[in-house]
Amino acid sequence: MATIFRLLLLIATLVQLTAANDKQTLIVLDKSSNISSFKQSHSNFVKLIQDLGHNVDIRSADDSTLKLSKYGEFLYDNIILLCPQVQVFRGSVSVKDLLEFIDAGRNVFLAGNHAPGSIATELASEVGFGFKTTNVKRDYPNTKLTDIFHIIGDKSKYPSTNFAYSGAQLKMLKNELIFKILENNAPVDTLGPSSSSKFLTNVLIGALQARNNARVLVSGSVDFFTDQAFETSKSANKHLTQELLKWLLKEKSILRFSQVEHKKLNVDPTPSTDIARQSHFKGYTIMDDIEYKIKIELFQDGAWVPYKSNDVQFEFVRLDAFVRKTMDVQEDGTYVARFKVPDVYGVYKMEVDYKKDGLTYLFSSTQVSVRPLRHNEYERFIYSAYPYYLSAFLMMGYLYMFSFVYLYQQKEKRNNK
User: Fold this and answer.
1) Residue 295 belongs to some domain of the structure
2) pTM, rounded to two decimals
3) Mean pLDDT of all residues in the chain?
């Protein structure tokens, strides 16, 4: 009986772990009547998501049971909105809910068209984009792909650079968190002079990575991801879509750190027997030589691999950075920085704050204390104090000479009398 109970408990645990590891992706369409036709027209698009190990739930905006969370927990890890003309959701979903979804560190993909509805327009505006509305859908045959490797991958592996794009252009807010992925290389739409200083024009597909590492993709075309577009572009659309989905669903370009270590260099291995020199202080002393290490890994192609780059910087901070230097990288992805503690005591932080286009933001902070020298740790004689030493000995010499002269003169006066 006990064996059967343990077996049932093990099965229940495995089922729970499997359910917990499933990644849920929601695709929202305009109408419920479009679901069957969508599965035919976007079959390759759905398959790309499923191949990444995600469970795909296809719903419509007019579904009254549509909701993003239950009992305070989100039901999905990613949301793909292919409902450009929706004015309002019938379920308990709003633009505010979608923004809270992004604020929770989850990912959203928004696709519009030449005449987007209020939902697509408002959400795009909240994430730094805007649609250039037109009366008819336009084709953009002259396109230019970005060079951000960690989003689009290796450009040399693309079967073609001629993308089939039919829809609308986007305007993109000039912001360090927002990137253009695909742009129109032969601009046909323009913005007013007042908007040109704030926005980048002629963007077709753009991306946002928020400060909490939530990822957002915005496209001005739903047709870009159809099976027909995949075939027309000789698989260029499909290859780009595959790379974008990997990036959006966080199946690549993820950084993590581990094995943060720091130690004092040039330490005598034999412990001191002098009680006056023994200390239980765990921090560092001013002017110590320190070595700092951190291991950084990159998630790529389903595995964690060493991340090697020559632009990772280390900072030793107390309000402001007292030390800032580029770290040396080893073959296993371990970064090393060696530096001297400044001649100012206090509470410091050893920080690595790394931001690179397409990669998740990496931040590591370790707090340490730096104390001044103890009374028995100073040099016995300090070079800068030599003038004072000399003046002391000179004063002693002057006193001796004065005493000798004074006593000798007194003796001469008595003899003369």
Assistant:
1) yes
2) 0.82
3) 86
Residues 12 and 111 in one domain: yes
Report how far apart the first and last C-alpha atoms of the chain are (Å, whole number).
130
- Clarify whether residues 241 and 194 are in a common domain: yes
Residue 303 tokens, joined: 């595995």
- Whether 218 and 208 have beta carbons less than 8 Å apart is answered as yes
Burial classification of residue 177, based on how many CB atoms lie within 10 Å of its CB (0-12 exposed, 13-18 middle, 19 or more buried): middle
User: Is residue 294 domain-shared with residue 243, that is, in the same domain?
Assistant: no
Angle at 203 between CA 202 and CA 206, to 5 degrees: 170
Residue type, 191: L
My answer on whether 220 and 288 are in the same domain is no
* AA identity, residue 129: F
Q: 42 with 71, same domain?
A: yes
Domain of 335, CATH number, reads 2.60.40.1930
Query: Of 167, 184, 26, 179, whose CA–CA distance to 109 is shortest?
Result: 26
Record the tokens describing residue 389, joined without a space: 């030493």
Whose CA is closest to 97, among 117, 126, 63? 126
Q: Which of 20, 80, 18, 21 is nearest to 48 (CA)?
A: 80
Q: Which residue has the higher pLDDT, 148 or 2?
A: 148
Residue 168: domain span: 1-250
Per-residue pLDDT tens for 289-321? 999 999 999 999 889 999 999 999 999 999 899
Percent of the chain with pLDDT over 70: 86
In the predicted structure, residue 114 carries a pLDDT above the cut 70: yes
Name the percent of the chain in helix, strand, coil, to the closest 5. 30, 30, 35
Angle, helices 43-51/236-248, rounded to nearest 10 degrees: 40
Question: Percent of the chain at pLDDT above 90?
Answer: 58
Pairing of strands 334-340, 289-300: antiparallel
Residues 241 and 297 in one domain: no
Q: Residue 232: its pLDDT value, please? A: 87
Counting the structural domains of the chain, the total is 2
Indicate whether 177 and 84 sit together in one domain: yes
Q: Does 164 score more than 50 pLDDT?
A: yes
Q: Do 200 and 262 belong together in one domain? A: no
The confidence score (pLDDT) of residue 247 equals: 96
